[in-house]
Amino acid sequence: MTKTVLIVDDDEDVREIAQLSIELGAGWNVIAASSGLAGVSLAAAEQPDAILLDVMMPGLDGPATLDRLQSIAETRSIPVIFLTAKARASDQVRLAALGVAGVLPKPFDPVALPGQISDLLGWSD
């Protein structure tokens, strides 16, 4: 069965590059949201297999969006991977401690992204 990944990022370029990378590199379906609130409602409606979530967004940021996702029964079990420009190890450790499947740095390598997602989530080919 084809996987579906939800990308939640306020940067349109990041959403487009990640979407192309995932669709072309892995053949998975991609849905996208430009804000945390839109991401939460899309996740509840579409039930994606995983969520790529930007950390720094206006309004509802990544950690606050994650809190909402974890508080809703329909979205609680969807694995979340943070995408962040905060590259310091201490930031990544703090983010990983929030209960996400992993933390990937921005900018990411579009060629490597599908494999990194697969590795973090234990998805085999």
Offer a quick outline of the entry:
The protein has 125 residues and is an alpha/beta fold.
Could you characterize the architecture of this molecule?
By secondary structure, this protein is of the alpha/beta class. The N and C termini lie close together (11 Å). The mean pLDDT is 94. It contains 5 helices and 5 strands. The protein has a 5-stranded parallel sheet with strand order 2-1-3-4-5, with helices on both faces. It has helices at 12-26, 36-46, 62-71, 89-96, 113-121, and strands spanning 4-8, 29-33, 50-54, 80-84, 102-105. Helix content is 42%, strand content 19%.
How is the secondary structure organized here?
Blueprint lengths: L3 E5 L3 H15 L2 E5 L2 H11 L3 E5 L7 H10 L8 E5 L4 H8 L5 E4 L7 H9 L4
Parallel strand pairs: 1-2, 1-3, 3-4, 4-5
Helix pairs in contact: 2-3
Basic shape: globular
Give the SSE string: EHEHEHEHEH
Strand content: 15-25%
The helical percent reads: 40-55%
Our measurement of the CA-to-CA distance between the termini, rounded to an integer number of angstroms, reads: 11 Å
Class inferred from helices and paired strands: alpha/beta
Number of strands: 5
If helices are DSSP runs of H or I spanning 4 or more residues, what is the number of helices? 5
Main β-sheet description: 5 strands, parallel
Q: Mean pLDDT across all residues, rounded? A: 94
